[in-house]
Amino acid sequence: MSPTDAFAPAKVNLALHVTGQRADGYHLLDSLVVFADVGDRVRVTEARAMALTVTGPRAAGVPADARNLCWKASEWFGESVSIVLEKHLPAAAGIGGGSSDAAATLRAVADLRGRPVPSEGLERLGADVPVCMVGHAARMAGIGDVVHPLPPLALHAVLVNPGVDVSTPAVFKALTQKTNPPMAEMPAAAGGAGGFVDWLAAQRNDLQVPAVALQPVIGHVLAALEASPGARLVRMSGSGATCFALYDDSAEAEAAADGLRALHADWWVEPCTLR
Ligand code: C5P
User: Fold this and answer.
1) N or C: which end of the chain has fewer CB within 10 A?
2) Would you tell me which CATH number, out of the four given (2.60.120.10, 3.40.1180.10, 3.40.50.300, 3.30.230.10), belongs to the domain 4-146?
3) CATH assignment, 151-274
4) What percentage of the chain has pLDDT greater than the value 90?
5) Is the shortest distance between the CB of 89 and ligand 1 below 6 Å?
6) Annotation-wise, does 143 bind a ligand?
7) Cα 93 to ligand 1 centroid, rounded to whole Å
8) Using CA positions, which residue lies closest to atom 7 of ligand 1?
9) Which regions form coiled coils (predicted)?
10) Is 70 exceeded by the pLDDT of residue 196?
């Protein structure tokens, strides 16, 4: 049988408000999530027993065994397959690499075996897996288990990761104020128009301050993006360390990315469209 491929896009939290904490320690979120046209690739083929190979430019340090979320997702689905994961996204980076890989694996296995993916309990694989199953602009609530898909939007952006791993639990732990206001009412037309960016600028990522305190280089990334010509809005995604800037068009984003790469050859810099 022929293999089945799935794209695992980078997830970007345009805003991430922490609105409370549950008794089990998980945090309640209100987040606007979009997906990039850069990401990992997952290929699944028929096999009797689970197998996983990790390839690609960002494969170093990614486990190729039962610890990997691709493997866990397939087991959660009750299917044994052979998986090739091609890593392009930095890991532990606030752009949902593991959750997006898990969602792509579920889509590919569902295609291969002709079974729909159960919608219940996906968040137990990873809090970002339910929104990654949607794969385009969505508002995420609860601990990540409540997802409301949004009308299409297209934003021109640059993603930057300075190459430091950030532990999500450590950032949540360092957040002192656990109860913050949710996002303000979104404008009806979120289609990249100026009004949307103004609205977005008034929202926050509540994890940005604790993440910068833990990894000060994130502050340098934010400053470098702020200084890039044409940057309309600069913010960190997820629990970091990846940050993004929004631009009016793709030429500005490409030019900003070239400038950032020239100054910081060791940073991961990707111009992209967010949808
Ligand atoms: O589910 P995921 O593996 O992405 O979460 C990693 C860790 O981040 C959790 O173990 C938890 O400490 C923290 N977390 C949280 N509240 C969320 C999502 C994650 O406290 N809504």
Assistant:
1) N
2) 3.30.230.10
3) 3.30.70.890
4) 94
5) no
6) no
7) 14
8) 169
9) none
10) yes
